[in-house]
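User: Batch of two.

Assistant: Item 1 of 2:
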Amino acid sequence: VMQLLESGGGLVQPGESLRLSCACSGFDFGDYDMYWVRQAPGKSLEWVSTIGRSGIFKDYVDSVKGRFTISRDNSKNMLYLKLNGLKSEDTAMYYCSRDREGTWRGQGTQVTVSS
């Protein structure tokens, strides 16, 4: 059974940082591109970032470019998202996902940015 377990969210002030982690199991992690998606209150699911199987290819939604960094450790079946320079508009539930649309996603970790 595929499992994606996110952690690392929290309440932070604008400008601060967080590191999200996602423990993956139940599938051959290294064979898949992986994704982070998010859902802000009252909004639809939004793609945030993609990382290729080897970790070389990376892509980001424009609103987080230069602030967020995606990474993975295939030896540990782990996916990460480092969030720097957080803004109030980054407040959302963040999910790791095996697809860009978020169909195959975990239960999420809440990120709240507020002063």
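Item 2 of 2:
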Amino acid sequence: GVQLLESGGGLVQPGGSLRLSCAASGFTFSKIYMSWSRQAPGKDLEWVAGIEAGGDGIWYAKFVNGRFNIYRDNAKNMVYLDLSSQQVQDTDMYYCAEGNAGVRGPGTMVTVSS
């Protein structure tokens, strides 16, 4: 079955950067739209970014405001999310998913704090 595993989260200071990675298996990755979402405790899941199967179509949530970059490597079955100019309010568990609302991985925690 579909398996997704995120990594790369951690503690970063405001204004800092992180690279999140998601390893995918169990499906034809190169044919599937992938996305990143995030969720804070007690809050709803919030969509962050999506990327088409071939990598040509990319979309971001309005709050990203040019600070994040989603990309993928279909040869490695990987999708990435580069976070930059991070703000305290970016503190969340970040998930990659098949589609926008499909199977998600266990998530990787990003904490932005001084």
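The chain has a mean pLDDT of 96.
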